[in-house]
Please model this.
Amino acid sequence: MTTVRLPLFPLNSVLFPGLVLPLNVFEERYRAMLRTLLKTPEDEPRRFAVVAIRDGHEVAPSAPGLPDPTAVPERGPTAGFGPDPAKAFHGVGCVADAATIRERADGSFEVLATGTTRVRLLSVDASGPFLTAELEELPEEPGDEAGALAEGVLRSFRQYQKRLAGARERSLATGAELPDEPSVVSYLVAAAMVLDTPTRQRLLQAPDTSSRLRDELRLLRSETSIIRSLPSLPAPELTRGPTSFN
Model:
């Protein structure tokens, strides 16, 4: 078992390997994290782990009424996540490699990172200025018939795109190149579909590529059928909590 200790960045979203993650970082705990990452030699990756929040707030209450009217100010690395932060997060996340970290004049940061490897959350350490975690790297196993499943998912995804474009009354580029490597297909489709966070999380932590592709095939067929029947699209994130400031 390969384990690693990395800074932890909880979000109200799921990061998949290969996907780009832009961040606007303004909370002090994450500023401290990025100041530490900037000390990493330029020829080494500046890595941190992203986990989806199961129960808690992406942005800690910083003043009365922010980010919601009932907020009470909280401070420290665990603010917004309760007394045991490990229970506030989903158990599988993704390592992010920060290719770009730019500090603004006001001390906030602009970050552009890319998901690299899935990891399992083993423990969370809140003793420092920001959360760190002990993580187990998860290999991506292909499973059975991954190639054939990926072809089916791509066909269904193209139909889904067409239906989605029609529902939004706009057109999508039909000549866009899509990957054919099964694991890449599985992560791209998981990120591109209109899904809620628990469903995205389920796809992230699938035991192998084939299992993820089978789940996506069911979802694509179901969602395409729903879009065909409904005059408007659902907005699954609108009722899940206050608007994120990140």
Strands lie at 3-11, 20-25, 47-52, 92-103, 109-125, 132-137. The chain has five helices and six strands.
